[in-house]
Write a structure and sequence with these properties.
Layout (H helix, E strand, L loop, with lengths): L1 H13 L23 E14 L2 E16 L2 E15 L2 E4 L6 E9 L2 E9 L3 H11 L3 E15 L2 E14 L6 E12 L1
């Protein structure tokens, strides 16, 4: 009995794991983070809301190239095209350049990341300007993604926070679109 107590005190004094489930030799014992490194086909769809009084439904299509280090990742959204429907009109951009993916975090199979893009559909801006009666000089979308990775696919919800700089306004106009996203490799 005395030997057991002494061994337990030595384990506690040295801070050894002693059957607690803690890491041994720096190896994690919890769930491993999903692997998201590599190229993915990306789609954000049914982004629905109003851009400064104009109802829209938008989608974004492109490729994603991600690099990962443990529980974080970053990368590039490329070949990106945006399509938006407004009442009686569908508008689409071609490839509008690369966008940096930031704030990528993995916790097991849970994934979060962001990217920001300038809005490049002047036809919608003209509709917004007609509704407001003032020129809109810049619109920026910030996409926030939350979801789950499962093998070679991932998907979840996306929230798009927008900001529009309006000539003569004391502060930018803001708006929110919400939808879903998916990616496959």
């Amino acid at each position: 009995m005395k030997l057991r107590r002494t061994a337990l005190l030595v384990v506690l004094a040295l801070g050894l794991p002693a059957c607690s489930g803690d890491a041994i030799d720096g190896e994690p014992t919890g769930p491993q983070n999903a692997d998201v490194a590599g190229q993915w086909n990306y789609l954000a769809m049914d982004l629905i809301g109003e851009i400064l009084l104009v109802s829209v439904r938008c989608a974004v299509v492109g490729g994603v190239d991600l690099s990962q280090q443990n529980g974080t990742f970053s990368g590039t959204l490329f070949g990106r095209a945006i399509e938006c429907e407004v009442p009686n009109l569908t508008l689409e951009t071609g490839d509008v350049g690369d966008v940096q993916i930031i704030n990528g975090v993995l916790t097991g199979a849970q994934v979060e990341f962001d990217y920001s893009v300038p809005f490049q559909l002047p036809e919608i801006l003209k509709l917004v300007e007609a509704e407001l009666g003032a020129p809109v000089t810049r619109v920026t979308f910030t996409f926030h993604h939350e979801g789950t990775v499962s093998g070679n696919s991932m998907s979840g919800a996306v929230t798009v926070n927008g900001e529009a700089v309006i000539t003569g306004a004391s502060r930018p106009g803001t708006f929110v679109l919400a939808g879903s996203w998916s990616a496959t490799r």
